[in-house]
Amino acid sequence: MDISIGFLREESVRVKDQSGTKTSKERYRSLCKTEDSIPLFSQDWWLDMVCGEHSWDVKIIESEGEIIAAWPIYIKRKWGFVGIVRPPFTPYLGCWIKYPTGQDDIMRMDFEIEVYSKLIATLPKFDHFSLAFDYDFHNWCPFYWQGFKQTIKYSYVIEDIGNWEQVLKRFSKTNRQRVKKGQQNMTVKYDLPPEEFYNFHVDVLRKIGRKIKYSFELFKRIHDAALAHGCGRVLYAVDANNKIHAAVFDIRDEHFAYSIFGVFDRECNASGASTYLSFEAIKYASQFVNRYDLGWTMNAPLGHAKRHEGAVLMPFHNISKNNSMLLKVRSFSSNKPFS
């Protein structure tokens, strides 16, 4: 379906600049340095860390020489198929749009339709597509018109974290008791070295017969880059013998803190360390933001645990499409055709 409303000229859609000038990716890197509204997970430095410098691209739309829309994408190749998917440890990766001033609701929706339609048209050929869009994305009509599918999923977010007493009151009774127990038994420390954090996670998984699914090199890249950009920190809880019971690595942007990595030793569950550390992480994050994102899940036990920390449901759109018949068949059996 060809959508053309007239806000943008056809020649304004640019995938690569002309020979001798900067590529779209180079121009996007420059934009990230000057445009504060680009989300953390769409920042070039974040994509370099989680995707690898050469495994992501960006599609841009320009109007009168100015970038007014950008869509970074992660391209993953598997079994000879090409997928456009969510990068590791990246909650969402959607389109950034700079809206013209003075738009009413009708003009804004028309503008979105044209921008999204043009961005979709610039996508490279793919066999599988699955992306989560951020909480501010609401208009998926252009994707529907192009044969994409949509699923609502949910993150669990703790709001108004500046008032610690109210946050604790929203915890379940059991979790409030666990926080109290943790306060009596544990000490929260900061800045566990990445090697120790990773080894702790490996050891915790080994105890329950599982293996870690990410490499130390990936974790260290994310850890070091987040610290360098002043938006991440490790917190961990230890007992009187300095034994680690739980650890978290959180990052933040201007609006949310995100629990990206969380690990607790089930053998130490009676100490209350995991719940106490979560509460202390929320308190720490409240210095910078007012909302703490515990992450998304559609798993019933995990959802139960997050709700008992006083989190509310935050819906977001997951957009998907399979162009490969083989992957369509596989999706019926595994529901994860490109994982």
TrEMBL record:
<keyword id="KW-0808">Transferase</keyword>
<dbReference type="InterPro" id="IPR016181">
    <property type="entry name" value="Acyl_CoA_acyltransferase"/>
</dbReference>
<dbReference type="InterPro" id="IPR038740">
    <property type="entry name" value="BioF2-like_GNAT_dom"/>
</dbReference>
<dbReference type="GO" id="GO:0016740">
    <property type="term" value="F:transferase activity"/>
</dbReference>
<protein>
    <submittedName>
        <fullName>Acetyltransferase (GNAT) domain-containing protein</fullName>
    </submittedName>
</protein>
<feature type="domain" description="BioF2-like acetyltransferase">
    <location>
        <begin position="213"/>
        <end position="296"/>
    </location>
</feature>
<dbReference type="Pfam" id="PF13480">
    <property type="entry name" value="Acetyltransf_6"/>
</dbReference>
